[in-house]
Specification:
By secondary structure, the chain is mostly helical. It has helices at residues 3-35, 54-57, 68-78, 82-96, 102-109, 117-124, 147-155, 173-182, 212-220, 227-236, 245-261; strands spanning 129-131, 136-138, 161-162, 186-191, 196-201. The strands form 2 sheets. A 3-stranded antiparallel beta sheet has the order 3-5-4. A two-stranded antiparallel ribbon has the order 1-2.
Length: 291
């Protein structure tokens, strides 16, 4: 059962207990009044009779501590495995992007770094965490803080660099990458081998001009109509094709033959001898077979 379900169940139990205690208190008060009726003395004036204090008669409803839910959450976090607590701290450092003391970490995400030696040592040696002896902070792979530093870093890698290595540099790094792409300062391309996006610098100091003759020659080359022939031509030049048309066609053919020979399952009809588990829904079984 998840933590949210446990908390919802605990809230319901609290409400039930509180209503039960309140009803018991009110019943006890009513029974006290009925069993002990006030005695009237004719010699005493009504104004001299003591009046019942409202604070005594009206008892406040019994309430549980408002801090119980928070304490339960803290207890469940601290009893969690060390790996889960470490991830919780790293996620906090990634979100805040500022140095936090162990006391601040404990206050925000309820992980007591000092009390758990395994968590403390793992955070100190984690490649994503920096510890200066007093505070923990998030350590990204590349120390860049803004768009200008990001562009300088990308230009150091003319062969391209994975975008995944830049995603945790700072909060708005992806927006800055799109802005650099819009300004035609970088290119964002997909690498089909690793299925990840790569960013390439578009260095304005190296302009490339292609002659019209070369463009016309490139466009005049007629490609084979069958994709299988294209793959063969790529293999001749030492380029590995990303697709395997022959294998795909063979699999499709085998699948087509097997699907034709696959026998159809006989549909089981419901009869009066069938064991019914939904007997409380008789409208489902009005058309039963008389078998």
């Amino acid at each position: 059962m998840s933590l949210q379900e446990n908390l919802a169940r605990f809230r319901k139990q609290q409400e039930k207990c509180q209503s039960t205690l309140s009803s018991i208190a009110s019943e006890k008060q009513a029974s006290t009044k009925s069993s002990n009726p006030p005695k009237h003395n004719s010699n005493v004036h009504k104004s001299n009779l003591p009046t019942a204090s409202p604070s005594i008669n009206a008892r406040p409803p019994v309430k549980f501590s408002n801090d119980t839910e928070r304490l339960q959450i803290i207890n469940s976090i601290r009893k969690a495995p060390a790996g889960a607590q470490i991830k919780r701290v790293i996620d906090l450092l990634l979100e805040r992007r500022e140095a936090l003391t162990p006391e601040q970490i404990n206050q925000v995400c309820h992980v007591d770094v000092y009390a758990n030696k395994t968590v403390f040592e793992s955070l100190k040696n984690n490649p994503k965490v920096s510890y200066d002896g007093q505070c923990f902070s998030y350590k990204s792979k590349h120390e860049v803080k803004n768009k200008d530093q990001l562009l300088v870093l990308i230009r150091r890698y003319p062969e391209g660099m994975p975008i995944i290595d830049l995603k945790d540099s700072y909060i708005n790094v992806m927006e800055d990458l799109q802005a650099l792409k819009a300004d035609r300062k970088v290119w964002l391309l997909s690498n089909f081998d690793s299925q990840e996006d790569i960013v390439y610098p578009n260095d304005p100091r190296v302009p490339i001009k292609v002659d019209d003759d070369l463009k016309q020659l490139f466009r005049s080359i007629e490609l084979p109509r069958d994709f299988l022939d294209i793959e063969k031509e790529l293999q001749k030049t030492g380029i590995k094709p990303l697709t395997n048309t022959a294998q795909r066609r063979a699999a499709a053919q085998i699948q087509g033959v097997s699907s034709k020979n696959k026998p159809k399952k006989k549909k089981h009809e419901i009869s009066k001898r069938t064991k019914l588990t939904n007997a409380h829904l008789p409208e489902l079984f009005q058309n039963l077979s008389t078998q």
